[in-house]
What does this fold into?
Amino acid sequence: MNNCLIVCNGKLSKRLLDRFLKWKKLFPEFKIISCDGASDFLYRHKVTPDYIIGDMDGISKKALNYFRKKNVVVKKIVNQNQNDLEKAIRFALSKKIKNISIIGFAGKRLDHTLNNLSIIKKFYRKARITMYDKDFEIHFAVKSEVLNTKKGEIVSLIPLPVAKNVKTTGLKYTLKNEKLEFGIHTGALNTAIDNLVKIEIGKGDLLVIRKRSVRISKGD
It folds into this structure.
């Protein structure tokens, strides 16, 4: 169980969800974790998650009863210091999951979206966490990583709040041991000029935003 999908109660589309359902068919161990209110979206589209996580104040009684009859594991966690996404990530980590994909993390309220990014920042060193919407793939960069890219692909590097000694190769605007800081100097709207882009960070947190297709790693 090295891969999972967390479905949040933000802006969701069936087309995006269908991409991950294909993974489920390829890898039976791939798990779907629904955050509380997002379960109604899955219910409407006849998709059964493996787990429902949250304080159960968002899911309808109709959906909850339906999924319980389907033997979905419902874990009610009441903790006002954690939102449902954080509860779901903590649960995934407890199951030793190494690759976490997230959809529905944004789109309804700006404060929720920013808070969800803050939560991802808290945990991205413990697992590979990637967020998806219909157009973009978003993750925090590790100390050194190589991206498989297409020439012309947009790659934005956003420090949250600071990333020091940032170096890149394979991008149109090369960064050479630079300091990026939110509100002062960022690396937004750069362009890949090679099929491989390398990013190195000395210290700090750097969000990588890419417009590309969804992929899956089978895990360790």
Q: What stands out?
A: The chain has two domains: 3-135, 141-211. The chain has five helices and 13 strands. The domain at 3-135 is CATH 3.40.50.10240 (Rossmann fold). Residues 171 and 192 are 5 Å apart (CA to CA).
